[in-house]
Write a structure and sequence with these properties.
The complex is a heterodimer. Chain A is mainly α. Chain A contains 14 helices and no strands. Chain B has a single domain, classed as MetI-like (MetI-like fold), CATH 1.10.3720.10. In chain B, about 70% of the residues lie in helices and about 0% in strands. Chain B is built from twelve helices and two strands; from the N terminus they run αααββααααααααα. In chain B, β1 and β2 form a beta hairpin. Classes of the chains: A mainly alpha, B mainly alpha.
Chain lengths: ~350, ~325
């Protein structure tokens, strides 16, 4: 039994003696941050030692030293560990932000000049790697990606949600085993998914290189993401909702299909979007299953089809100036699509706690 | 547990409403049956992968014998076909190790920063940044790695060689620094930092506040309480996250394909030499112009990669799960 206390109207904030700061601490901290930067800048502009060497040999030790000394003056011996911790954290933070910034900014800066209306709508027939950027584009690859992702979604979403229903709702004897298998499947490398579909349906002549083969390979990668997210979402459906449905005499199928799934609708859509975001940029499986094409092909069952990732791969490989610009352009489009999907998941799960 | 136990409200597991023995309607049976069949699809797929890759590559594997994984030659030219993947297998591990050496400290510090040090708003922003980094497709990382990052990282490699070249690890006998395992390791690190950071952040955030308060109350500094309380508490989860990252690193294909020079001659430790290997990238590189037998050999290489990642991934999940169970006690 639990006793709930009413919240005090004006909660007294606990005192935090360690958080107290006086003026000299602030000043010494500021010096500890600025001094190494000044030394670094001075050495960088006056000597000819390369920048990375200065950062590793001069800046880091100096930063650790100044941070250590100020913490020591502030808190005594215990402060030195704190200084190491904060320098390490800020370094890691700076490194990751710099790397991510470099990726995103270079894709935007180098991809933007290639983007124009014709680039988004035209296909690649009669286009050579040196053709001017005003002709040809990724229209066929956009449609191809849409087709392959659609096929993968149609296959992976029902199977993934069914796995989640089995684990959370039916709670059958094999629930633990199914969860184990889904986890094992989430570790399948994308190239292996491609090899498997290639061996299973292309080598055996069921179909040739085609969108359906690519969709099947994508579905293998998508299923675990959908199943794991859907499982988490279905767990959030309140027990009372199920209780009420059962008490009213619903059958098992009805409880799941009419009560549980509609309650978790937003979360399930998030699961689908996450699954799509997981697969949409994968190149390796498509190289082995859809191959590549220059024309628009909307027949899923025969003939190669082009997709954005494979388009990037193709044009990066050919090495000419204009073809590399095309690759950057396609990468920017792909990045925008991923960003939209990412924004969508955050929008959908914005008030997770309010309603499921 | 007997059913007569008094149940504490709010603490009951969701009951199974529909027992197996009770009679059910036909539609209910159909529903459960189809759900069970669909739920077993992952088992079906995993078994099918083993069977198809195994049966197709079996003749080649038998013909090549143990030297398929221990030899260093890949040739279809002289009429005699030789398929041996040791340099690729070793290279895959070498790249992954370099990637982990870079990624693990960065990720753990980043997770500590998000959980303990950063102001609330900054840690929210940083969480989103990590999610974005995880969402960037590997093809884009490959494009960036090939055209932007290689130059920078080759410069770092050259400096390492210039100042620390007397260490055998940083020796370089080709006087060329692009397309080396060092760069491949950096690219892998970028892709696994989000994985390790997310898992570490979650387990670190679960450190009981009472334990942290107690450590602070005894006069411990922040770094001291992290070292003595939070890190031991989160150790299992962090190790699991590292293993998940390792699984990802072993299977990475396209990004490595663009930044690494694949050579069928094992490069044991000279990480700055433009010589390396990676099974997944090798499959892509060889696939286009492969002979029928070669295709089967590539399927065999894929089978070995699959088994390797399967083990790493299952071990990772086991470690994460065990550490979570310990926490409940």
């Amino acid at each position: 039994m639990t006793i709930t206390l009413e919240k005090p109207i004006n909660p007294v904030k606990p005192p935090k003696p360690w958080a107290k700061r006086n003026k000299s601490t602030v000043i010494s901290n500021a010096i500890a941050v600025i001094f190494p930067i000044l030394v670094l800048a001075a050495l960088f502009f006056t000597t000819e030692i390369p920048g990375p060497v200065l950062v590793v040999v001069v800046f880091f030790p100096l930063q650790l030293l100044t941070a250590g000394v100020t913490s020591f003056m502030d808190k005594g011996k215990r402060g030195i560990g704190d200084a190491v911790l904060s320098v390490g954290c800020v370094t890691a933070f700076g490194l990751v932000v710099a790397l991510l910034g470099s990726v995103v900014l270079s894709v935007i800066a180098r991809g933007f000049p290639a983007i124009r209306f014709s680039f988004l709508t035209q296909n690649n027939i009669y286009i050579s790697p040196t053709t001017d950027l005003t002709y040809g584009g990724i229209g066929h690859a956009l449609l191809g990606t849409l087709l392959v992702v659609l096929i993968a979604t149609l296959i992976a979403v029902p199977l993934g949600i069914a796995s989640a229903i089995y684990i959370t709702d039916i709670k059958g004897r094999a629930a633990g085993f199914v969860r184990f298998m889904v986890q094992a499947m989430s570790g399948v490398p994308s190239i292996v998914a491609g090899l498997f579909i290639f061996a299973a349906i292309i080598l055996t002549d069921v179909v040739g290189f085609s969108a359906i083969a690519g969709g099947l390979a994508y579905a293998i990668l998508m299923l675990p993401t959908v199943a794991r997210t859907a499982e988490e979402v279905l767990r959030l459906v309140p027990k009372e909702v199920r209780d009420a449905a059962v008490a009213l005499g619903s059958s098992r199928a009805r409880v799941t299909m009419r009560i549980v799934l509609p309650t978790a609708k937003t979360g399930l859509i998030t699961a689908v979007v996450l699954g799509v975001a997981r697969i949409i940029g994968e190149t390796a499986p498509l190289l082995l299953t859809t191959s590549n094409a220059n024309n628009t092909n909307l027949n899923p069952f025969s003939d190669p089809v082009s997709t954005i990732p494979v388009y990037i791969f193709q044009y990066l490989g050919s090495g000419y100036q204009t073809s590399i610009q095309r690759a950057w352009g396609a990468a920017l489009v792909l990045l925008i699509v991923v960003a939209i999907l990412f924004g969508l998941t955050r929008y959908l799960s914005r008030n997770k706690r309010g309603n499921v | 547990m007997s059913s007569s136990t008094l149940e504490v409200p709010g603490n009951t597991p969701t009951p199974r409403y529909f027992g197996r023995e009770k009679s059910r309607t036909k539609s209910d049976k159909l529903f459960s049956g189809s759900i069970i069949v669909a739920a077993l699809s992952s088992l079906f797929v995993l078994t099918a992968i083993l069977i198809y890759l195994g049966s197709n590559s079996w003749p080649v594997l038998v013909e090549q014998g143990i030297s398929f994984v221990t030899g260093s030659e890949w040739s279809t030219t002289d009429g005699v076909e030789v398929f041996q993947i040791w340099p690729m297998l070793y290279g895959t591990l070498l790249n992954a190790i370099i990637g982990l050496v870079i990624a693990v400290p960065v990720s753990v510090f980043l997770a500590l920063f998000i959980v303990f040090l950063a102001p609330r708003n900054l840690s929210k922003v940083l969480t989103v940044v990590i999610d974005i980094l995880a969402a960037i497709p590997s093809g884009i990382i490959g494009l960036w790695g090939f055209l932007v990052f290689t130059d920078t990282a080759a410069g770092w490699g050259q400096l390492l060689n210039q100042y620390l070249g007397w260490i055998p690890l940083f020796a370089n006998d080709q006087n060329q620094f692009a397309r080396s395992p060092f760069i491949a390791g950096w690219v892998l690190a970028i892709m696994i930092i989000p994985i390790i950071t997310v898992v570490s952040r979650e387990v670190l955030a679960q450190t009981p506040q009472e334990l942290l308060d107690a450590a602070r109350g005894l006069g411990g500094s922040l770094s001291g309480s992290i070292r003595m309380v939070a890190l031991p508490h989160a150790r299992g989860g962090i190790v699991g996250g590292v293993m998940l990252g390792l699984g990802r690193a072993l299977g990475e294909t396209i990004a490595i394909y663009f930044v690494l020079n694949l050579i069928f001659d094992v490069n044991i430790y000279k990480i700055l030499n433009p010589e390396g290997g990676a099974i997944a990238s090798m499959i892509v590189a060889k696939f286009g112009e492969a002979t029928p037998n070669e295709i089967n050999a590539l399927l065999g290489a894929g089978l070995i990669l699959f088994i390797m990642t399967l083990f790493v991934n299952l071990a990772a999940n086991y470690i994460v799960k065990r550490s979570q169970r310990e926490k409940l006690i």
